[in-house]
């Protein structure tokens, strides 16, 4: 069984230099386990940040894109003892 990863970005369009939060929750609870923020470029997903889940299994990342364009992000949760790996939906951020 795969955990469910919910996610949301604080905005889908942002001016260059603005931080954008990516937040969400993993269910069932997996407090203390790591989740990874990945960005898609060069035809592959790349790790850009990691954080431990809170006591309520929530996470928060803040991204600061360096160039104008469209960025694609997703949150990935590796497999653990009782669940297979899973990733959230792809989030698109347009930087102007």
Describe this structure in words.
The chain is mostly beta strands and 96 residues long. It has a single domain, classed as Immunoglobulin-like. 0% of the residues lie in helices and 57% in strands. The chain has strands at 4-9, 13-14, 20-27, 34-41, 44-52, 58-63, 69-77, 86-87, 91-95. The strands form two sheets. Strands 2, 4, 5, 7, 8 and 9 form a six-stranded mixed β-sheet that branches. It has a three-stranded antiparallel β-sheet with strand order 1-3-6, with no helix packed on it. β7 and β8 (86-87) form a beta hairpin. The protein is elongated. The mean pLDDT is 95.
What is the strand and helix layout of this fold?
Elements: E1 4-9, E2 13-14, E3 20-27, E4 34-41, E5 44-52, E6 58-63, E7 69-77, E8 86-87, E9 91-95
Parallel strand pairs: 2-9
Antiparallel strand pairs: 1-3, 3-6, 4-5, 4-7, 7-8, 7-9
């Amino acid at each position: 069984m795969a955990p469910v990863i919910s996610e949301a970005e604080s905005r889908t369009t942002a001016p260059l230099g603005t931080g954008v939060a990516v937040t969400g929750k993993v269910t069932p609870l997996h407090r203390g386990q790591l989740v990874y923020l990945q960005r898609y470029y060069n035809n592959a997903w790349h790790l850009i940040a990691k954080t431990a889940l809170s006591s309520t299994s929530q996470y928060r990342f803040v991204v600061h894109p360096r160039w104008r364009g469209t960025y694609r992000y997703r949150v990935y949760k590796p497999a653990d003892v009782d669940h297979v790996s899973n990733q959230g939906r792809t989030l698109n951020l347009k930087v102007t």
